[in-house]
Amino acid sequence: MKNDLPIWSLLSGIALLSGCGSSSPKTDKDQQARKPNVIYIFSDDLGIGDLSCYGATQVRTPNIDRLAGQGAQFTNAYATSATSTPSRFGLLTGMYPWRQENTGIAPGNSELIIDTTCVTLADMFKDAGYSTGVVGKWHLGLGPRGGTDFNRKITPNAQNIGFDYEFVIPATVDRVPCVYVENGHVVNLDPNDPITVNYEQKVGNWPTGEENPELVKLKPSQGHNNTIVNGIPRIGWMTGGKSALWVDEDIADVITCKAKRYITDHKDQSFFLYMGTQDIHVPRIPHPRFAGKSGLGTRGDVILQLDWTIGEIMHTLDSLKLTDNTILIFTSDNGPVIDDGYQDEALEKLNNHTPMGIYRGGKYSAYEAGTRVPFIIRWPAGIKPCKQQSLFSQIDVYASLAKLLNQPLRPGAAPDSQEQLNTLLGKDERGREYVIQQNLNNTLALIKGSWKYIEPSDAPQIEYWTKMELGNEPRAQLYDLSVDPSETNNVAKEHPHVVEQFSVLLQQIKMKK
Q: How far apart are CA 512 and CA 189, in angstroms?
């Protein structure tokens, strides 16, 4: 007879692997009987070479290293996309973002790009009886078509797509408006000082980086010359809302505090927390605790700050005796970029640090460093520490966690997400059959076995601002990653049958409804 018991109910006899302190028998029993908590943390623009557990030698990340040592550390895990908005869309919807038109990098006043009828990852957790919360970077738009009105309750928001609690940065920290939104309301907004945001032309009389460079404390290297907030010129124009503006040095502390509070408030019930850090995205403004501490400039400093954030979350779980029965996933939304718009000496102070590792490209790119990202999952009650080399995509988190919870997917939900639970738990060495990668221009790449195919594209070969190789070529590209992981030798001409096979498969995937 088939055993349909959910996996957590079979774990009571498993020796727990966590190093956290002892707890009372009652607490242990309660934790084992409960569905596991799930915390999913998206760092921002973090490279596979940025962490010491992945081989970095010029910067140390002891908290993330500890997380990796206690869980499954993936070496062949991929974000769906090489930029922020589509990558997050893919995770939460279980659908490839290139299937929907408006999933490019969203401005700060974008409408909510996930349809409220979509059954999201958060909806799945709610169906399974979980409390759900989102804290930190959002970048999926807020409000109705036509843009966001930040001066009244913003709806639809994250609460309309499955989250019970919302505390978010609307877009990125280099885009206006520079405010937090909590449950649909701008935090600390003075109604007598309404916010106006525009991405096409200047509004109000606030100084800009272009007009008032003498007021800038962090100079732009390209773009980023619109409204100045906290001495930093941003993308887009805003005026109003002075009492609601964030302080850049405090953002990591604020996000971390909100996440810890959410965990503490929900310690007695199963919860799903989706957390987006602003680190290590530009502008890189570390708290004074970390400024100058890395020896790699501010980019290195905010890596230390990110590691502190993860340490704070881990410590909170330990102190509440939630560690053993909490699935903690840490990863990045896309690959790294060095100069992404500000003169922060990130390039000059690299000091032989290699954010991309051995891989070609980076953020925005179809090459490996665009979407091959750090991915670590810890669950002491259900995962033995290991190095997981199987092929895995973030698109499969949705269906895999649904399988873990024995939660049937609603009709039409997560259409591209495959159940890869054993891979996620470090128990399966086969992994996914193939992985799809997406670059800034929606050029797609396909990895299967040792081969990687990049479809032909007439889009620009170099990203204008960052000078990043995008992987766009008018001819097909084929790389054997088993011998050429750095993608230096295009062997498409030598293997036309492989090119044809991959081209056909990619078209079939595109046509799937």
A: 45
